[in-house]
Design a protein that fits this description.
The structure is a single chain. The protein has 239 residues and is an alpha+beta fold. It contains five helices and 14 strands. It has a seven-stranded mixed beta barrel with strand order 5-12-9-10-7-6-13. It has a four-stranded antiparallel β-sheet with strand order 1-2-4-3, with helices on one face. Strands 8-11 form a two-stranded antiparallel sheet. A hairpin with a 2-residue loop joins strand 9 and strand 10. Helix 3 packs across helix 4. The radius of gyration is 20 Å and the shape is elongated. It starts with a strand and ends with a strand.
């Protein structure tokens, strides 16, 4: 059984911590623990916030204590660690790489001693787990980028990164749902609209995976138009 710690953070939260590494099994366990805690409907627990290797449990400090919450959630954690992980979805996300929409692709390729196409092939060769959402609405923190492509983020962040941009920051990757400043290495852009303020719930969730596939500029335009018209269906692969 994976070892963990429960630590009080002030008088309104406890943090469940696992090994200090980015590990898909640990992260999936955290999401499972979070779901079970919420399903248990503890009266004072308000919500849970997952990260790479931690799960923060927020509670009403006027109704209970960190020690009491820790006692209550331990059986839930034990239960989660003893059952099989549920199947997850893998979203197939189209991306146009390089050129004006991927200004850092050549730099990343040089870093890896690869051609631009070889870098794209390496990047799209496996799936990326969504560890958690944060920073921006719908911004998915994913890992792990292959070692040879894991270039550090820019020393000087850009002031504007267009919505849909796909970037690398070390072993992390992600896409920008809205225009934003940012320091990630931008290697491409998806034509999909990833965030709609009128319907803010993302179609993807933490615990899902993403499989990127390369498209050309004509396909980018076609998918973008279909997506805006509501006729493009993002495909999934069940695991």
């Amino acid at each position: 059984m994976e070892k963990y710690q429960i630590t009080a953070v002030g008088d309104q939260a406890v943090v469940i911590s696992f090994a200090n590494r980015i590990d898909p099994q640990i992260n999936q366990r955290l999401h499972q623990i979070g779901r079970l805690i919420l399903q248990a409907d503890f009266p004072a627990v308000q919500t849970v916030v997952p990260a790479y290797r931690t799960l923060t449990v927020l509670f009403d400090g006027s109704r209970t204590t960190a020690n009491q919450v820790s006692v209550e959630i331990k059986p839930v954690i034990k239960q989660a660690l003893q059952v099989a992980l549920p199947p997850s979805r893998t979203w197939l996300i189209p991306v146009l790489y390089g050129g004006d929409v991927g200004p850092d692709l050549s730099t990343v390729a040089d870093f890896a001693h690869l051609s631009d196409q070889e870098a794209v092939n390496a990047y799209t060769s496996h799936d990326y787990l969504i560890y958690f959402l944060g920073f921006l609405p719908g911004f998915a923190y994913m890992a792990s980028v292959p070692d040879r492509l894991a270039m550090p983020r820019l020393e000087k962040p850009r002031l504007k990164i267009p919505a849909g941009s796909v970037g690398i920051a070390g072993h992390q990757t992600g896409f920008y749902p809205v225009e934003s400043p940012g320091g990630w290495r931008i290697i491409g852009r998806t034509p999909l609209k990833l965030y709609d303020p009128h319907n803010p719930q993302s179609f993807y969730s933490a615990g899902d995976s993403v499989r990127f596939f390369a498209i050309d500029r004509d396909q980018f335009t076609e998918i973008q138009q279909a997506d805006r018209q509501g006729t493009y269906q993002v495909r999934t692969v069940e695991k």
